[in-house]
From TrEMBL:
Upper taxonomic lineage: Bacteria, Pseudomonadati, Bacteroidota, Bacteroidia, Bacteroidales
Pfam families listed in its UniProt record: DUF3244
Name of this chain's protein: DUF3244 domain-containing protein
Gene3D superfamilies: 2.60.40.3080
């Protein structure tokens, strides 16, 4: 009985280690957002956080927004290849942008809220298809 419990303990530890390794292999990047045409000397709070993983971008709101928010993704030539509008998103809301149809290249993520525009840049380094 003691041997059986030791074997079960070792098996469960090995599964926990495998799961930890799988989680550490997730390749996510934080997209740094900057306010467009705004003096760099003035500290401002950025109300969203954008994280890119292999096939999507997750946008989390860090505070409640009272107005509509427009998301755009532009390619290297400045063409809008994605646009969506959210009406008054709240702090608990997470918005996901699917990158499945995008080709390898450099892109810009724009978050437009009333009179403020936040821009972040990201790259797709391999085909997601």
């Amino acid at each position: 009985m003691k041997r059986l419990s030791i074997v079960l303990l070792l098996i469960s530890i090995s599964f926990m280690i495998m799961k930890a390794n799988n989680l550490s292999e997730r390749k996510a990047k934080c997209i740094v957002l900057k306010r467009w045409e705004y003096p760099q000397r003035t500290p401002i709070s950025i109300p969203i956080e954008a994280i890119q993983d292999e096939n999507s971008i997750e946008v989390r709101f860090l505070e409640n927004v009272n107005n509509q928010v427009t998301f755009q993704v532009k390619d290297q030539q400045g063409n809008i290849i994605f646009q969506d509008v959210l009406l008054a998103p709240n702090e608990q809301e997470t918005y996901k942008i699917n990158l499945g149809d995008y080709q390898i290249g450099h892109y810009e993520l724009l978050c437009i809220e009333e009179d403020m525009t936040f821009i972040g840049e990201f790259d797709i380094e391999h085909s997601i298809l």
